[in-house]
Specification:
Low-confidence stretches: none
Shape: elongated
Order of helices and strands: HHH
Number of helices: 3
Distance between the termini: 53 Å
Helix content: over 70%
Mean pLDDT: 91
Strand content: under 5%
Amino acid sequence: MGISIFELFFFIFLACAWPVSMARMIRNRSTKGKSLLFSCAILLGYIFGIAHKFIYDLDIIVGIYFLNMMLCLADAVIFLFIKNKYEKENS
């Protein structure tokens, strides 16, 4: 039940990608190149990953799973906000 350094670094680098994605959407006021379905699939993956951690291998990395899941959820919320506010106005 040791912490995998590779899993840790994977999620740390992934956690860095979400704020970049959110900043780009906010700056451009556009969801171009984004997919809500993809974000939902990633969220589902985090849910299953967290479930696995709780059932089989609970360690500190579960906190990073939660962090990434919250960042992905924030990205999806920003996506919906921009889609509804800015992209409907321009249609």
